[in-house]
Amino acid sequence: MLPQSTLIYIHGFNSSPASLKARELVATCARQGLAERLRVPALHHDPRRAIAQLEAEIAAAERPVLVGSSLGGYYATHLAERHGLKALLINPAVRVQRYFARYLGPQHNYYSGESWELTAAHVAALAELEVPPPQDPARFMVWLQTGDETLDYRDAADYYRLCAVQIEEGGDHGYRGFAARIPELLAFAGLTSA
Hints:
Blueprint: E1 6-10, H1 20-31, E2 38-39, H2 47-60, E3 64-69, H3 71-83, E4 86-90, H4 96-100, E5 105-108, E6 115-118, H5 120-127, E7 140-145, H6 153-159, E8 164-168, H7 178-189
Parallel strand pairs: 1-2, 1-3, 3-4, 4-7, 7-8
Antiparallel strand pairs: 5-6
């Protein structure tokens, strides 16, 4: 029997392991005896450093499955395509250079309190990570909510159109109702309670 997967949760822009979705996932995994099967790294704001962190997580994990939210979904797509991994994406960012160019300047991490500056070099580094739309629906599941106030869900629906895309009416960028869907996420990853 194969060992169980390791979930790697990839948070979004100016977020952290203290985000609501990350905390809900940690709590559910702990309740189900799966705490050791979950990694939730605190990612650096520089895309190259964040990808290096995630590459190290993947290298150390047994049968990694990626879960990415927003910018984390963008990172997860890049890494899933590079390594042939499964990925569940929650309101993922696509074609990020178009979105992030308008946010150049001072930034503040919502959870850590860290202040930093988003530069054109950051945006260029993000653009380097873009991959063609995934073609393998078995490896990707995409959860979108039409009420996303940060990203236009239609961009992701089009980009991931060949994948298993689920679109819910309403909601928001944080993905309302995420906790109730965690069992589906764990099933996608092939994880069962210990």
